[in-house]
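Before a colleague's protein record goes any further, I have to sign it off. What it holds is a sequence and that sequence's fold in token form. My question to you is simply how this chain folds and whether the tokens agree. Thanks in advance; the entry in question is below:
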Amino acid sequence: MEKQYLFILIGAAVVLLIIFISTYFSKKAIVKRKLKRATYRRFTEVRRGEIAKIVGNVEFIDQPLKAPLSGRTCAYYHVLVEQKVSTGKSSHWKTIIEEEASSKFVLREGSRYAYIKSDKIKSYVVDDIEYKSGLWNDASNELERYLNNHQLESQSFLGLNKTIRYREGVLEENEEVAVLGTGEWRNASEIGLPSQFQRVLLIQSPAEQTIYLSDSPDTVKHSNDRF
């Protein structure tokens, strides 16, 4: 009996360790941790080459995007679609679609602007809308169309609804966003922006590192407190 309890305890500890590792090292956790621990600076306080966190409001430059699930006008969207899959006595959520897209935008702080220029961006945008389809709950026309665009369907070959959840997060105009990177003041025309922006704080990737971006409420706090 003692060995049986020992095996149960070891098994439970392994499961808890796996959950902790997968949570602690998830993209969401990493981005939030980086931004919450970073040094906050107002735009005008950022020194050239300094790694700092800034917080500004989204302002569109190019034609904004239309979020595929909600139809919201935005500068960026992230969509995650998961299907519930049963394996014997247990079940889990399997990712069947993960999609993100961005248009050109700046961040505004008062009369100052910042622009992110990098292909090394790790972002966490809060998924603030969720839809579900499944038993007795057909997918809407919009959700079905989205699945079809990715060569998927909400029903099995037997005509039964699959259990699916759809999550979407966006960066809307005027939404507050936190960004961590290195800053340098440049003329707007030098970096391909309309001249009306005049001098712009260009945010780039630190050497061999990544820019972090999020709209999560606990990352946009104007504070230098450490967590």
Summary: The mean pLDDT is 88. The CA atoms of residues 36 and 219 lie 5 Å apart. The longest strand covers residues 90-102. Residues 2-75+99-126+171-214 form a domain with the OB fold (Dihydrolipoamide Acetyltransferase, E2P) fold (CATH 2.40.50).
